[in-house]
Amino acid sequence: MPSFSTTVYPETLGSSSIFKTSEFKLDRCLNGTCIIKDKANTHYGAGMEAVDQLEFENAVTFFTKAITLQPEQTQLYVVRAEAYLQLCDFKSAALDYKHACYLDPQKKAYFHRLAFVYYLQGQCYFDLEMFFEALNYFAKAVELKPGFRPYHMRSLACLTALGRYSDAIRMVTNWLDSETPSTDLFTLRARLHHQLNQHILCYYDLKEALRLNPSCPEARALLEMMAQGAECSRQQAVTRAVEGDLFDALRRITTALEMNPENAQYYLFRGILYRRLKDFNAAIEDLTLAVEFTDDGPKLPEGEKPEESKDLERDAHIQLVLTYNDFAVHCFTQGFYSEAIMLLNKAIHEQRDESRLFINRGDCFFRQKQWHFALADYQQAEELDPQNTTVWLRLALIHNTLGLHSFENLNFQKAADQFSVAIKYNPEKLDPANDELVPLLLRLFPGCSLSDVISSGIAQTVKTQLMERIQTWKLEGLSVSRLFSKLESIVLRHDMDSQSKTDSESREDVEVRFKPGEYTQDPIRSKEQVSEAVKKLLYQRQSLTFTGPRIAQLSNANNLEETACTSKRPYTWRNFGGMGLNC
């Protein structure tokens, strides 16, 4: 049997370190650290040689061995990350740079390099049209290096590729708010607005871009394209309006205005459409803008506007006045007389030489029983248009109304004057067929018979004036001689009826012969005639509180709408009517 030595050497035992001195332990530790460091340096050097020879896989192997020996060395992670980049292993490179940033957080260059790695990853996904993944990596790059614009632009490209234009606009808006605005940024945001069909915002962004750089070709090209689209929409709107499809025409002209929101002609056309659709508030707003944009248009060196601009401004003013008038007519029909007066005040302020506006406002005052304001408006209308029979009828009506009020207040002279003016403006008031004629005369001349009234000197004077006035009116089918012959026959018939109602005893007095030039009357018969007349007035009189029209319709009075339609003007004035007048 072989013999074994029983000598125990401390080196062979696991607990042999207890037999070592402290000096021995320190020496062995220093020797081990140096060995590991030297070996790591050897692997590092070998890895760098492999990099120089473009053998990046071998370089990664060597760097990995070195990191295994010295895991706290930041530079080893950096060089291995660069080797991974050369191999396009971006994920591994990102992990190494993240570890380097962890080991040395004060080194900004490592963070920027990591951002670049994320950028490369995002670009690879973007090329593969994996835009959501690309956006994620670009966002990481922006977070690590927020001041670097290319990373932001790549994120913006991903947002647009994903159709998230609102987020892209928000990003560009933040740049404009935080930095100095530039032509490129305004043009970029304008394109994004155009993608969302936000034409108004696109238009004003392009305007701002051209303000900063008038020669910007991209902004000018996009603005010209929008102007062409706006004109095409306007022509389609005109076609639809001619065909009678006003709602589709309104939709198309609105699109045109969104593409070119500073075109006065477009506002004028849309304002006319709104007026025809009875959307008066919108019409007034558009027509006011049309006037404003016309005023802000290009001016000649002498300070005068071009002829085309003058015509456009004149048309806008006319349409604005017509809209005020139509709106007032609508309010009048609904019973909102105060609102109608307010609108007509605005219309008159814009155009003071139009008699129809004063007629309509006078009608509003008439409905509010403000007789003197109504009279003033009617008189102003007559001054502007002296031959307008519509004004005459209204003047006759207002004077007749004022006369009735004076009569009710026992102011007979003033009432007679008002009735005389009413008859002057409307001689048809004395038409024998008018049932109000005889009661009116008896009320105006109490105690007198019709024959006394007709045979008086004042009546003859009035007859002459009426003949002239009736000739002016050119009444059809009723001449002056016929009118007064009918009146005289009615007077004779009225006197004969009054005489037939006396008792038989008074008949003998009728046969009494009088000498030429003498005039006598039996007191008893006169008293009976007065009694009969008083009874007739009491039981057959007209109500003094009657507020309706007391003027007969004028048979040949032209309708205001027909007169306006047959005129050479391209527009029509609307009136109220409904006051007992055929106008």
From TrEMBL:
Keywords: Repeat, TPR repeat. Pfam families: TPR_16, TPR_2, TPR_8. TPR repeats lie at residues 40-73, 115-148, 264-297, 355-388, 396-429. SMART domains: TPR (SM00028). It comes from the Eukaryota. This is Tetratricopeptide repeat protein 16. The lineage of its organism: Eukaryota, Metazoa, Chordata, Craniata, Vertebrata.
